[in-house]
Amino acid sequence: MSWNKGLLETPIIGNITKKIVSAKASREAHSISDHFTQFLQPHVAVDQALKEEAFKIRHNVYCEELAFEEVRENGQETDEFDKQSIFSLIKHKPSETFTSCVRLVTSSGPDELLPIEKYCIDSITNQDLSPKRFNRAEIAEISRLAVKSDFRRRKADNYKGSSTGVISEISYSETELRCFPFIAIGLYMAAATMSMNTGIRHVYVMMEPRLARSMKFIGITFQQLGEPVDYHGLRAPYYINPEMFMKNLSPGFKSLYKTIEKDICTQLNQLGLT
Asked: Looking at the domain that runs over 3-271, which CATH code has it been given?
């Protein structure tokens, strides 16, 4: 046993070490949450005007930028699943601009399929976690996540179908730039809040494996249900439930989640969904 190791194992030094680690985790928690809340705020689409903001963002990303869908005359990208969805957006406070959006597609019965069921059901090879096995009222899909190019960073994600916008350092401060990579994380946390507070127990998403790996770094661990397929780029089916979501979140991102949850739940109450 080395001297240092022996010292660390003494009760006094061991307790001091734990306190230092705990203090560091606490600072991390406050830092992540504070940076996010200083510049960004999650919103549930409680009215048609906010839903249309989400549709405009989707049109900007999915139709104009990525050309996954046809350009629409009204500048709004919508589809058949919107009528069974709850929407969340994230606003950039200083500019009062909505940066991004995501939807949670729900199902009230067998006639309301999730997008993954209609278009990618054959990609799910883990039949134990197939949406067919669960109560329809307890399944949902995170879908149509979109972040406007002004709020993304090309250096971090320079590959097809990913972030392609450049942040203008003239328009945004260095401190603000630190928040923008958290926008997608914030959207997933908003979707998680919307699901966990509306009785959803089983959540699906079609996403790029690279994004799934990135989310794992912060403690959000999705379970892959099959091999990647060509669906708006190379994507694979993933599954997560409330227990999996909360299990491995770092202290900093747990703090951020609690902050987002508080905002989202207040707005869900307005819709009578909690």
From this structure: 3.40.630.30
